[in-house]
Amino acid sequence: MFTRYYQLENDLETSVFLFGARQTGKTTLLLQQFPKAEYIDLLDTITLAQYSRNPSLLYDKYRNSSSETIVIIDEIQQVPLLLNEVHRLIAQRGIHFILCGSSARKLRRKGYNTLGGRALPCRLYPLVSAEIPDFDINRAVSNGMLPPYYVAKNAYLGLAAYIDVYLREEIKAEALVRNLDNFQRFLDAAALTDGEIVNYNNIASDCWVSANTVKEYFSILEDTLIGYMIPAFTKKIKRRLVQSPKFYFFDIGVVNYLLHRKEVVRGTAEYGHAFEHLVMQELVAYIGYTRNENKLSYWRTSTGIEVDAVIGDARIAIEIKSAEEIQNKHLKGLRAFREEHPECRAIVVSLDRISRTTEDNIEIQYIYDFLQELWAGRLF
């Protein structure tokens, strides 16, 4: 069992919405961190049926409870009308609710009560390196960081079932798309462009659907927490910059399954792409958990010079390379970026075991050193 970095109690001055993709470990985290809380599991058939028929049962159950009461409702999107009763109990009794689910889409798109700011939105990500004793970068790159699969001997089989459940229960059951076959083709096409600049027209051609449909499909992936967009850094000094976002799936293991990569071999191009994705995954989680004000973006010029990650307003620029020996050719993007942003801290994250600083002050950090600095809060 993993001890999670995210301590939800720090955000429990008010009620919270805790969202996260399936099998990120939401329920386990809640039971670990709040063992004395009241717990309502809407995946339980009988409980679901009762509250679906009569949501006011929740109010009746807690109408006389004290403001010290903590109530967890797991899979809240199963009975959205419960949110009206939650709203009443927060307003009248000051009860703290932790409302847990794998998607905010159903609540937001159908106009259900989202508590008018009375519940703080929080997100649980897959495992991060700081949560894993003896963290193994090669295992993470191949298996991904979802708790059941990072430790699995055959993560590929488990991830096959994961995608099947996602399609059946998140997409088909909620009628989010009209044609499931089209959406499955889109998933495959999106995986091929994971970590790349989004081109809706090209993906639409591959999937035999319109560009507008592809935009809607990407929106579904974001709303169901299966992926996210990383915006372009657009502060222009001299060079003309690309403006379109990049898309990343929320976990590299999911990408590996969709691309039929049963094993990602170190030294290959596939490993390089997966390594970059994993580092971005760690940055996204760190910024999310710490509510860091520095936004994450990427930088690319119209001529193709690129930096993988930019933190804040050019505070830090990070290039991610799976090379085991960093050479001058790997520093081209960072040097171009610093021509326009000379005060920027420039870092290369790689498999080069010797962490050091070049003569022009570019930091070369071994992946394990970088991750340690990140999660210790010493990077930014």
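the 2nd protein, sequnce then structure:
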Amino acid sequence: MVSIDLISGFLGAGKTTFCNLLLKHYMETGAKPVYIVNEFGQTGLDADIIKADGFEAVEMFGGCICCTLKGEVSVAIIKVIEAFSPTHIVFEPSGIFIFDDFFDILKVPEIKQKCVIGNVLTIVDGVNFTYAKAMFGNFLYNQIKNAPTLVISKLEKSRCAPDELVADLRNINPEAFIMAKKWEQFSSEDFKALLTDRKGMVFNYPEHIHGRFQSATVKPPEPFSQEALDELCDMSVSGVFGDLFRVKGVLNTAGGPILLNIAREDVSIEYFKGYSESTLTFIGITVDKCEIEHFLSTAAQMPDCSGPS
């Protein structure tokens, strides 16, 4: 039987980074994992990131698994099993999906005969947890309350002490196993603790929030300059492009491709070792695509750069 791990978490929480670590752990133990991601938007960037590290990855974008892609996920899982014969499937849904619908997919007879639910984890954004809780409290509370295992991300950037975050999460879910550790400190023993069987949770998601979010995917000019990159980050964080929660994409610069990740005020820029066309996806309560496209038209005239500073 193929074990399907479900890695949940709100927009920008760090799910893909964790999935990368989990895939490496499985490979080191002799397992054969495959990664499937459902992205909210029109780009399969997260799959490209995983593929760049040498893992098998399948992307599903342009919809959500609890709406337009529900049937496609069933087909994708079956095709992945037939093509790769994995021992594990690591499934990363979009940050705004409903758990119940995923478990409905696993009730499809052909999948039920071949798969079992493995580990169910929720990644909690250590930087943006307070904001997300205030803005999307009911949804976020349920995402945390119903997860057997919680992993706090971005501890090196968080203004809150780990003990404070753990205490806050304990108030929401006193039964969960909580891991609060920086990514680079994760060990094989930590994964053994995380992957202990904690199934049997009852999932209850009363709120469907996809309708509260907008998204826009655009093609930026190439090469993208350092000046344009700095302005893009400033305008995204300051609200010029709308009330954004997430900006992600690959920008091809004169110095090579870079990976841009913005979750509210948390900005991450790093070199991208894979290949992808320049693409940016903006997700938020409001997204001003006209303002974004106007900025990108002016960015094409800015001086070239040699990469991120």
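Confidence is low (pLDDT under 50) at residues 65-69, 200-208, 305-309. The two ends are 47 Å apart (CA to CA).
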